[in-house]
Amino acid sequence: MENQKKRILSGIQPTGTFTLGNYVGAVRNWDALQDDYDCIYMIANMHAITVRQTPAELRRKTREAAALLLACGIDPEKSVLFVQSHVRAHAELSWVLSCSTPFGELTRMHQFKEKSAKHPEDINAGLFTYPVLMAADILLYNADLVPVGIDQKQHLELTRNVAQRFNGIYGDTFVVPDAYIPKTGAKIMSLQEPDKKMSKSDTNVNGFVLMLDDADTIVRKFKRAVTDSDGCVRAGDDKPGVTNLMSIYGAFTGKEFAAIEREFEGHGYGDFKLAVAEVVKDKFLPIQQEYRRLLDDKAYIDTVLAQGAQRAEAIANRTVSKVYRKVGFLQL
Ligand code: ATP
Ligand code: LTN
How far is the CA of 211 from the centre of ligand 2 (A)? Predict the structure, then answer.
């Protein structure tokens, strides 16, 4: 039965501690999908260097990302967990795919526009071809589904175009993947600027809650969250701050907006914010404990990653050989 399961691949960059947005939009779904799918999860350190990183820190954050994913429930007995740079096939396939990806298509990517506006001093070619590497990550493993937050939807559409174009030119080679975007929590907004995505690289630390924030920090950040002067816990386009807090509360309790509105009828924002902080703390504090325990055992983490890389490589190398043959690279 094992090989009849559909294949899942997803990735996360080790650019910092994961935010509540990363957790709700991606990582907790990675955990939930492990029993029903054949899952491959990747720490995207090659994507991370599209923005300048300090080498020693990137190394540290890569191991920390692995520990945090394990603490969130990613089980190496069920799923493959590996680091992107450990499997050379990612760079190899990325080059071939970049040679059939139109420049114009890449210029339309929102993430490129946003990141190049944010780092005008370092608009490197890698930032521009980032989505091609992401397409390679996915297509190498013939993934059927890719669980991501909504901000990655455009990159998934590009991946589908890349796969279809390649299949059209060279004959059936790649599975055309679908995005798997959660119904709730696919886009958690900044607590300070609720019209902007919550992002771990935000310069305003009050905009995001990190999975490793301590209990007091979590409460403080929610207390400071931007709301409005209406004073009523109700969702609506005119109330982005409160709606975002309701999405977070809903994501952690499974409650619908209507139920949340009823629960907090007649209560002020103060009570509501504390309730949101409470459910987030209840979820994150045990994960933090497990994270610390795991991080103490670096040898274990490295073993998991080495075994993950081996399993990933076996699949990825087959795809690269096939692609090299199809495009006409001489094989000896
Ligand atoms: P950065 O701020 O460094 O650009 P990021 O926080 O956007 O990073 P990524 O590593 O790029 O994090 O994303 C990992 C996963 O988390 C992706 O699937 C992405 O869609 C999801 N994600 C990121 N931010 C949010 C958010 N605010 N709400 C829901 N999902 C999110
Ligand atoms: N670009 C993604 C991270 C990522 C990814 C992937 C996600 C890299 N490779 C493959 C899904 C599949 C992001 O979250 N910014």
Answer: 19
11 contacts 147 by C-beta, under 8 angstroms: no
What SS3 state is found at 178?
strand
Q: Where are the beta strands (DSSP E) in 127-203?
A: 145-147, 178-180
E-state strands within 117-234: 145-147, 178-180
Give CA–CA dist 249/262, Å, rounded: 13
User: Which residues are tagged catalytic?
Assistant: 115, 197, 200
Give the position of tokens 């309730």.
275
What pTM was computed for the model?
Answer: 0.96
59-109 pLDDT per residue, tens: 999 999 999 999 999 999 999 999 999 999 999 999 999 999 999 999 999
Residue 32: which of 62, 65, 8, 3 has the closest Cα? Answer: 8
- Tell me the best of 13, 17, 22, 197 to mutate to test the pocket of ligand 1, counting ligand atoms within 8 Å of each CB and taking the most: 22
What's the gap in Å between 251 CA and the centre of ligand 2? 22
**Atom of ligand 2 at shortest distance to CA of 131?**
1
Confirm or reject: Cβ of 200 under 6 Å from ligand 2: no
Which CA distances in Å does 81 have to 91, 101, 312, 324? 18, 28, 8, 26
Gap from CA of 11 to ligand 2 centroid (Å): 4
- Ligand 1 atom closest to the CA of 190, numbered from 1: 27
Phi, psi for residue 237 in degrees, rounded to 5: -60, -30
Q: Locate 254 and state its tokens.
A: 């499974």
Percent helix, strand, coil in the chain, to 5, is 60, 10, 35
Going by pLDDT thresholds of 50, 70 and 90, the confidence category of residue 4 is confident
Order of strands, edge to edge, in the sheet holding 178-180?
Answer: 80-83, 38-43, 7-12, 145-147, 178-180
The average pLDDT across 203-219 equals 97
**Which of 133, 195, 182 is closest to 158 using CA atoms?**
133
Closest C-alpha to ligand 1, atom 22: 22
User: Could you give the CA distance from residue 312 to residue 41 in angstroms, rounded to a whole number?
Assistant: 9
Q: Which of 259, 135, 257 is nearest to 184 (CA)?
A: 257
